[in-house]
Amino acid sequence: MTTKILALTDALGNLVRFRLMPGQRHDSVEVPPLIDGIAFDGLIADKAFDSNALVAELNDRGASVVISQHPGRALKLKIDTDIYTWRHLIENFFCKLKEFKRIAMRACKTDRSFEAMIYLAAAVINSR
């Protein structure tokens, strides 16, 4: 069994919200519930999140779309490459999260305890 962590961080790389997903589920499926009820000016993501539905939702919200384009996309969107370089903050968060052995190895038996470990690790990371 594999588990994916879909995380949303703020502009400083601190965890705002996350969702656990089965390993076989596509990442973009869980984005709408992840961003529901959160106000933000833009979303920076990699090409796994490049979907017309997500781009339309972000445009409806008035948020800037900074998502790397999938190579097969017919209509390419213009993205600000200077802002896209800040995507490393989420990557840095995941690197810090994986320093915790129980998270990196998925040692928790239930999703509930795994979520609790992620919250605890995020609190420790934020306190550093």
From TrEMBL:
GO terms for biological process: DNA transposition. Residues 2-123 form the Transposase IS4-like domain. Coiled coil: none annotated. One of its GO terms (molecular function) is DNA binding. InterPro entries: Transposase_11. This is Transposase. Transmembrane segments: none annotated. It comes from Sphingomonas panacis. The lineage of its organism: Bacteria, Pseudomonadati, Pseudomonadota, Alphaproteobacteria, Sphingomonadales.
